[in-house]
User: Fold MATH domain-containing protein from Aquilegia coerulea.
Amino acid sequence: MERCEFDACDHKWKLALYTNGNEETNSKDHISLYLISVDSNSFDFDQDILVSYNLFVLDQVRDKYLKIQGVSRFHALKSESSFDKFLPLEIFMDPLNGYLLDDTCMFGAEVCYFVKQIRPKSLTITKNMIDATFLYRWKIEKFSELKDEAYYSQKFTGGGYDWELGNSLSLFLALADPSSNLFVGEIVHVTFRLRVVNQVKGLLHKDKASIGGGVRMTKSRNGMGWNQFMPLCNLNESSGYLVNDTCIIYADVDTGNEESIKYLW
Assistant:
């Protein structure tokens, strides 16, 4: 489902909504939301458009927005950017969460920054040319049975690098297998946000983000996070963060290069 066009930053856009996920991206049972450039075919072949944007859905009960930020490059061969698992369908359909009332919902987009860049005439494939933003969902079941000091999620790829989430009394984003992911002296500049889902209220909370334009990760310094991300006393059934002995964690990772980050902040 696609909505009518809208103008932002002297450019035309539209939203595409998949109400049960996009089959091509294995996102069944989720709301998938896409930002699409309508006139990307008018771009010069050597022109990139760096875009910072927010996609959101309205909580009609509390009059608040659930908002997720994205950063992506658009060009003649890439006209869309998406969050394939924007919101679990079960949470979206629950009227207590306010996203779907009287069979009506409201989605939106905000284009925050728009920078035109010219690619070199010679073709150089770099990791920064890969879509830089990635949202990962980690579902932890049988939480009360966890006994080890630390646990790690499955590896996931974002911005051309493999990552994993580490979880103890703290929560960290770590570069998976840095010895094989990075060359000697290579630096990955990354901004990220980690979230624990409130499964009762349907809000992405609690969340914390990297500050100061992001962090640098290397072979020896390959993880970053918070020792006291969230009090363990809040991980219980009544708080909504732990339901049926299960908690859900999201990681939003952006590996845009330093020049891109400087433009956006």
